[in-house]
C-alpha cells in the first residue's frame, strides 16, 4: 500500500471563506473527504495535515523520511520564498508534487515564482480542488 502525505500550508484552513472568487467555496475539510474517498479507491494510506507554521511543515517532511512514499504539498505563500521547505524536500529524497488551487502563473507576478517546484517531480495548479485528486493519482503512478 502506497503511503502519501498531503501537507497544506498557511491560510488553507480558511478555504471556503477566503477569496472565494479565487479559491472557491469548498473547505479544506471538503477536500480532505474527497481525497480520502479517492485514496480508498486507489488503495493509498493517506495522511492529510494543515499548518500555518513553516517549522511544522519542515518537521512533517523530516518525519516522512523512510515512512512515506510521496509528498503532496500545497505550501501556500511559502511557495514563493521558503528555501527551508525547499531544502527539507530535497534532503529527504521523497518524490514530491507541488499543488495549488489557483494558477499561480496567471496571478500577481510575485506568485508566479516557486522556489519549491525545482525540487519536486511536478507541479499541478489552476484546477481547484480537482488538483488534489490529480496529485493523488500522480502520486500513485510515480
UniProtKB/TrEMBL annotation:
Domain of life assignment: Bacteria
The enzyme's E.C. designation: 4.2.1.10
Enzyme class, UniProt record, top EC level: lyase
Catalytic reactions on record: 3-dehydroquinate = 3-dehydroshikimate + H2O
Protein name: 3-dehydroquinate dehydratase
Pathway per the UniProt entry: Metabolic intermediate biosynthesis; chorismate biosynthesis; chorismate from D-erythrose 4-phosphate and phosphoenolpyruvate: step 3/7
Coiled coil: none
Binding site for substrate: 74, 80, 87, 101-102, 111
Gene expressing this chain: aroQ
Oligomeric form and interacting partners: Homododecamer.
Physiological role: Catalyzes a trans-dehydration via an enolate intermediate.
Transmembrane segments: 115-140
Pfam annotation, one family: DHquinase_II
NCBIfam families assigned to the protein according to its UniProt record, in alphabetical order: aroQ (TIGR01088), PRK05395.1-2 (NF003805), PRK05395.1-3 (NF003806), PRK05395.1-4 (NF003807)
Gene Ontology biological process terms, A to Z: amino acid biosynthetic process; aromatic amino acid family biosynthetic process; chorismate biosynthetic process; quinate catabolic process
Matching Gene3D superfamilies: Dehydroquinase, class II (3.40.50.9100)
Keywords: Amino-acid biosynthesis, Aromatic amino acid biosynthesis, Lyase, Membrane, Transmembrane, Transmembrane helix
GO MF annotations, alphabetized: 3-dehydroquinate dehydratase activity
